[in-house]
Amino acid sequence: MIRVMIPLALAVLALFAASLLTGPAGIGVRDGLAALVAGDGGPLTLIMREIRLPRAILALMIGGSLGLAGAAMQGYLRNPLAEPGLIGVSGSAALGAVLALQTGLAASFALGLPLMALAGALIGVMLVMLLAGPRGASLTLILAGIAVSALAGALVSLVLNLSPNPFAASEMMFWMMGSLADRSMLHVWLAAPLMALGAGLLLTLGRGLDALTLGEDAAEAMGVPLSRLRLQLVIGTACVVGAGTAVAGAIGFVGLVVPHILRPLVGARPSRLLWASTLGGAAMLLAADIAVRLILPERDLKLGVVTALVGAPLFLHLILKLRKERI
Amino acid sequence: MSDFVRSSERIRRIIARAILAGAVIIGAAARAEAPARVVSINLCTDQLAMLIAGEGQLLSVSHIARDRRVSAMADLAAGLDVNYGRAEEIYMLRPDLVLAQEYSPRATLAMLRRLGIPVVTLPDAATFGDVRANMAEMGRLLGREDAAAALIAEYDARLAALRDEAAERPRAVLYQASGYTSGGDTLAGRILIAAGFANAAAAADYGTGAKIPLEVLAMLAPDLVLTSEPYPGASRSEEMLRHPVVAALREGRRAAMTDHDWICGTPFVLRAVEHLAATRAAMTGTSE
């Protein structure tokens, strides 16, 4: 466990620092860090504190929470395909966020944006869990996910097309693929409370998920309250995914890739995987966000493009593997 | 690269003008008298037509002409019928002249021409001279040369009054939704220079159609950031105009906005120059 966590934590730290030092202004390492810490009120301080710091913090928070949510859902459903982006939770959260922005709720009440995204995510995750059933068989889970994603995507598009703002309709890409460009500390404060609450709920699932690997009957015999476990998972996932999507759009595949890579390294124990995936998700999103700034600095390449390029082939690989196992 | 873009731009403009001239000659041959049922489907031709057309000559303008944020003549447009630029509704109006701009949707224009409706496109104005040429063109097309000549005389007089060289040029950046900027080859860029500012973005090689990253904007630290007025509803493109970095650059300075006077090549561009020049005078503490 320690052998996995320490390298992961070091990777997150290194990537966080690299994220702070990546950007079009071309600020040197020492100048940048001095401006960040000391703060002389000049343009360097403005860039470090108001552009790069919130971006790095958001990548850390959102990546971590997506990795955590993926690990928790996969542990509960005992299905490696369960991931908030793929099963439509992120898409429903985006719908809630877009509704909050376009109805003016977000402008009149600061927490309206993350709370509406939370509501959207909650509806999405409950729909999928109801449709897929308690055991979350692969086929029904993926079909339910496709249905919820498609509906949420269409409704996001509808709301943006109905907006009086001519720029809104062209921002489908952001809500479907996600980006951390030009976010500010305001977005960090908007997302942080719900994300902390959700992470608290998900990180304490460990014991229950460990017991669940032995089967539902065994888990209940061991005194794990399954209905409470399920409620905690649903609310926790909706909180972290809702808060993240509200400020950065829907970013897929992080919750799929990270648990898949880390599972063998933690001896396939769900309780350990929760913590490892949190760090792994943060590292993956920080790396992806550095990549979008290095590959196409002027174009605001979307984060979801990079995560999908890594994640989609893995997803196909997992489907093939599951099919073989069933035969 | 930029030279190539500029020269290809110039060639495109020359071709557009040649086509326009051809259309005018054919049009003049086809009908001797002035058109009586004119429909405009573009914001810029809307405003030129409203300025120059005679009583009852202009049947309909585009619905955008009523939008106060982009149209300098929204009040006048409120009294006219509006169209949404769809070939079917325009055909139903039975116009004898349709006014469009060179970037109007080609499919719509081709459909109208197939239906036998004369369509004339005006080129996009990129200089103060283009504005003048478009006014003269509009006068010829509508058979209202006298009205156009009066407008041009007033325009020339105001333009001449603006032509004095500024000694001290504060550095300004045009920063529109999504961070797009305009260079010296556009009307907006020329308004900036005419008002006595230096284009700090163009000096840093961020020309027309380039996006200025927030970080670069902070490093430029211009004396004036000119943004556009936001639309209702919400969008990320406009949200970044309220980012703390932009707010810090605008703090304590004049909140200059690019408005409806900036968008089209009409005489209102001179009002934009005059307003901006007043801002400059207040900033530098000099009288004009």
Per-chain topology:
The complex is a heterodimer of chains A (327) and B (288).
Chain A: H1 2-20, H2 29-37, H3 43-77, H4 89-102, H5 105-108, H6 112-132, H7 138-162, H8 172-177, H9 185-203, H10 206-212, H11 216-221, H12 226-248, H13 254-262, H14 270-295, H15 303-326
Chain B: H1 2-30, E1 38-40, H2 43-52, E2 58-62, H3 74-78, E3 81-83, H4 87-92, E4 97-101, H5 106-114, E5 119-122, H6 128-142, H7 145-162, E6 171-174, H8 187-194, E7 198-199, H9 200-203, H10 214-220, E8 224-228, H11 236-239, H12 244-250, E9 257-258, H13 260-263, H14 268-284
Parallel strand pairs in B: 1-2, 1-4, 2-3, 4-5, 6-7, 6-8, 8-9
Describe the structure.
The complex is a heterodimer of chains A (327) and B (288). Helices cover 76% and strands 0% of the residues of chain A. By secondary structure, chain A is an all-alpha fold. The longest helix of chain A has 35 residues, at 43-77. Mean pLDDT of chain B is 85; it is low at 1-5 and 25-31. Chain B is of the alpha/beta class and 288 residues long. In chain B, helix 8 (187-194) links the parallel strand 6 and strand 7. Chain B has helices at residues 2-30, 43-52, 74-78, 87-92, 106-114, 128-142, 145-162, 187-194, 200-203, 214-220, 236-239, 244-250, 260-263, 268-284; strands spanning 38-40, 58-62, 81-83, 97-101, 119-122, 171-174, 198-199, 224-228, 257-258. At the A-B interface, helix 3 of A face helix 10, helix 11 and helix 12 of B. Chain B: Residues 37-284 form the Fe/B12 periplasmic-binding domain. Chain B: This is ABC transporter substrate-binding protein.
